[in-house]
Amino acid sequence: MTTKLILACTVCGSRNYSVPGNRNQAVRLELKKFCNTCNAHTLHKETK
Ligand SMILES: [Zn+2]
């Protein structure tokens, strides 16, 4: 089953990206993405 994961900026909390994938209950997805609010590349974490 594939669900959509929302990635939120860890600096400002903006939800900038959604990616298809499976929710992994053990590990939270973390990706470096460009945040328009911070105007910089920041770490984005999976959120609900
Ligand atoms: Zn940000």
Automatic annotation (TrEMBL):
User: A Pfam family matched by this chain, by name?
Assistant: Ribosomal_L33
Keyword Ribosomal protein carried by entry: yes
Q: Name one GO biological process term.
A: translation
GO CC aspect terms:
cytoplasm; ribonucleoprotein complex; ribosome
Q: Gene3D superfamilies recorded for this chain?
A: Ribosomal protein L33 (2.20.28.120)
What keywords appear on the UniProt entry? Ribonucleoprotein, Ribosomal protein
Superkingdom of this entry's organism?
Bacteria
Under Gene Ontology molecular function, one entry of this record is: structural constituent of ribosome
Family listed: Belongs to the bacterial ribosomal protein bL33 family.
Q: Protein name, please? A: Large ribosomal subunit protein bL33
Gene designation per UniProt: rpmG
